[in-house]
């Protein structure tokens, strides 16, 4: 629900830019199984090559992450660890959600992305399970109904990611040359 909302706002706010939903579930990444560290860029597994191609074709990212036990999910951490150079010198924004808006997951993600040489923008969308999801029954997941201010914040985040991604393009080109 959250990813679809982000994609919808992105398409509406920036029709001249191309956005792609990259869903980890589509890659079926096992627990990190490459024999060499990602830093060396020697990928021997077909799933890693497909994942590397998907990340490499992006100039920037908007990560949508829930918070699990004060951090990101194991699946996201695993996916980040599979690659290195494909992440470098790109920009990212973070949309987090959870009981407290997923802020602790976002902070952990910022630290991981810094190690991968991804510049995270300051603007962040923080979605509360109490305020941005309507629950008919307290023990069941609810419909995603973001507050009106959230779309404005997301638009600002997207602006920042686009500007930073464009600014980092010469760095990416210099490194790839």
TrEMBL record:
Transmembrane regions: none
Annotated NADPH-dependent FMN reductase-like domain residues: 2-128
Signal peptide range: none
Protein name as catalogued: NAD(P)H-dependent oxidoreductase
Species the sequence originates in: Actinoallomurus oryzae
